[in-house]
Structure formats: structure tokens, C-alpha cells
Amino acid sequence: MQLTEIAMILDARFLAGEEFALKEVTRVGASDLMSDILAADSEGSLILTGLATQQVVRTASIAGVSAIILIRGKVPPKEVIDLAREENLPLLTTSLSMFVSSGRLYKHELTGLDSRR
Amino acid sequence: MGNLVKTFPIKHRDFIHAGKPSIEIKNLLKALNTPSEIIRRVAVCGYEGEMNVVMHARNGQIHLELSNTMIIVEITDTGPGIPDIDQAMQKGFSTALDEFREMGFGAGMGLPNMKKNADRFEISSTPGKGTTVRMEFATGGR
Fold first, then answer.
1. Interface contact flag, A56 B16, Cβ < 8 Å
2. CA-CA distance, B42 to B27, in Å (whole number)?
3. Confidence band (pLDDT; 50, 70, 90) for B142?
4. Predicted-complex ipTM score
5. Average pLDDT of B75-97?
6. CATH at residue A47
7. Average pLDDT for A112-116
8. Is residue A7 part of a domain?
9. pTM of the prediction?
10. N or C: which end of chain B has fewer CB within 10 A?
11. Cα–Cα distance between A73 and A96 in angstroms, integer?
């Protein structure tokens, strides 16, 4: 599914990387633990997280994550948004909770990082 | 191609710059057309190692060496050392402070994840002196 569709489903808006709105993702990880993202098969996936620090962007870049969505309406400091731009990483924010965000994406046929449902 | 060697410093508690060396290494390997699967493993190991130094050690460095057939990443620090390495290698074992856990790290997954991703993993530590983690990645010729 394209990021632009995911943004519509989650009422999310782009903070960085609008130019990648047509990027496709099928697997999603939801975690505040960067260690989990680094240990899982997260390459090419979408990450939902409540953390909004530079380390989220660096973790995503290193793990090859395709896009990050911040939940519960988090808007990170400017340095975090700038870093996402620098790393060509789409960064979005939604006012929805982790639970509701995950539920909506699950309903739209997206899978976990291990491709299971 | 001859050996390429590069060393990056790591500072204790410098969360602003933590991860930058690993991203530089990633970009360097990309420019050398290293297979993306190998790049990801090297970058993940480097980053986990960097975070360990930032959280637990004092100062340290991440050292990269490239040969025709192999990538070597060595992370050295002058921290407090690890008294029980077997325990530190267990998934979930952690001595990280809560402030690091709040940043999404310190879950006790770092060392096991490094071991999992490297083709060869060696760790040695002297309490009171520091720790060295050496990881090798086979590239099968470049």
C-alpha cells in the first residue's frame, strides 16, 4: 500500500519526505523499543512509534526502514525533522494512538514485520 | 582494492551524534557497491555497538577495515568493562539506566543482536579497563 493511502487511513500528515508519498509498504512494526526494530526484519517496512528523537530516524536509516509514523500527535523537534529529510526518510504524524493506528492498518490487510497476520 | 581503514570516535552520553558513524559506514559501503544485505548487518552491528559505548562506557571508537573479502568492525572503549560476559550475552539482560530505556534502548538486545548479524563475533573485556568487540563480515570478494 502506498504511503499516501496509509496517511489517509490514519489521518496522518507528512513532516518530511512528502516526495516519497507513492512508496509502497506491506509490513508494519509498532514499537517504542528501537532495539526491537534493529533486531527484527524491518527493512522496507513502516514503523509506528511514540518516540520522537533523532535516534528513531537513525535507527530507521540503519535498519533500512521505509517510513516512520509518530503516534499520539507527536511532533518532534526541528532537528529530528531535518535529519529525516537528510536521510530521505518519510516522517509522518497522526493524532491516533498506537492501538487504533495498528488496528486500522491491520484492517487494511497490512502485516507484521514477519509478514504474519 | 587495498585495505581501507577508518576510525570514528564515540563519546559517552552523546546521544545527539550516536549513530552518525554507522550511517557514514553504511554510505561508504553503499558507494563501494557492497550488497545491501551485508551493509544492513554491518550498520546494525556498528550502531548497537555505538549505543553500548554511549550508554555504558566512557569514551571509545569504532574502527572499520575493508579488505577484498572481508569487512571488520571493531568497537573499543575505556569503560567499566563487563564482569560477566556470558550474562551480558543473554537476551534481555541489561544494566541500562531508565533514562536510556526511555529513549528506546537498553533492552538487553544489543550484544546478542550483534552476534546474530556478524559472521564472526568476538568480545573481550577487562573490568575497570574497557571492552572490545570485534566483528567480521564476509563479502566474498569485491
1. no
2. 11
3. very low
4. 0.90
5. 94
6. 3.40.1390.20
7. 96
8. yes
9. 0.93
10. N
11. 7
